[in-house]
Amino acid sequence: MKTTTLLVGLGLLVPSMMQAASTSYFLDDGTGESGLGGYGTTTVWLNSFTSQAGAEYIQKVSISFGGSGANPTTYNGMAFGVHVWSDPNNDGNPDDAVLLESGSGVISDFSNTSNGASTGFVEFTLDSAAYIASGNSFFVGMSMYFNQNVLGPARDTSSNEGRSWMYRWNGDVANSAPGSMSTALNKNNYDDILGGNAMIRAEGVSSVPEPSSSVLFGLTGAIGLMRRKRS
Questions:
Q1: Which domain holds residue 7?
Q2: How far apart are CA 45 and CA 47, in angstroms?
Q3: What angle do CA 94, 57, 136 make, to 5 degrees?
Q4: 66-84 in b/e burial notation, b at 16+ Cβ within 10 A?
Q5: Residue 192: other Cβ atoms inside 10 A
Q6: Per its UniProt entry, which superkingdom is the organism in (predicted)?
């Protein structure tokens, strides 16, 4: 009898999360024809967005890697960082970007379509959500050090939004670069190079999910049940 009571109590402790509607932030059309990268550098690629009402919390970032001619075996197994920055003066330029949240991942399921264009996205969930007040500019991007010639995130060449950037440092400074954007040796908007948009997306929600009231009620009931069994 005691065992049954304990199992019921544990069942009521399983979190029931309230799902908030999400908004996607993106610049691309879903297909990457090319990419931008370098050799022997730490590179940060990032997109500028404006926070929308009801989507102020950013916790998920999606990236499509490579582009036309990219070899999946080159990317799979490579480590990268994922980041969210604020834009203190709301000018859309990341020189003064302030790092809010970071995470790290390993590319494990990158693949190309048969014609060489990249259409798949790798989704990454940050440990903590970054909050950006509605109407304010912010940046979402990735960082990577590589000692071989790779393209980084895929590049959609169907349009030029002017809101994709690439910052580079010599050598492996991947741990510090995202927090010191102004120190980059090379800073380029995509429009200054070949145009297009970085295939880096973010998902925003109105609030961070919390346990629902029904869970709290269930927990109270479970405690009361255990007390009655002990009396």
A1: 1-15+212-231
A2: 7
A3: 45
A4: bbbebeeebbeebebbbbb
A5: 11
A6: Bacteria
Distances from the Cα of 164 to the Cαs of 45, 94, 198, in angstroms? Answer: 7, 10, 6
How high is the mean pLDDT of the chain?
79
Which stretches in the chain have pLDDT values below 70?
1-20, 38, 67-74, 108-119, 148-150, 209-231
Are residue 73 and residue 146 in the same domain, yes or no? yes
Phi and psi for 182 in degrees, rounded to 5?
-70, -15
How confident is the model at residue 199, as a pLDDT? 93
Say if residue 194 is in the same domain as residue 219: no
Q: How many CA atoms lie within 13 A of 60 on its CB side?
A: 14
Percent of the chain with pLDDT over 90: 47
* Amino acid identity, position 40: G
pTM across the whole model: 0.79
Residues 99, 56 within the same domain:
yes
- Pair (49, 138) in one structural domain: yes
Type of residue numbered 228: R
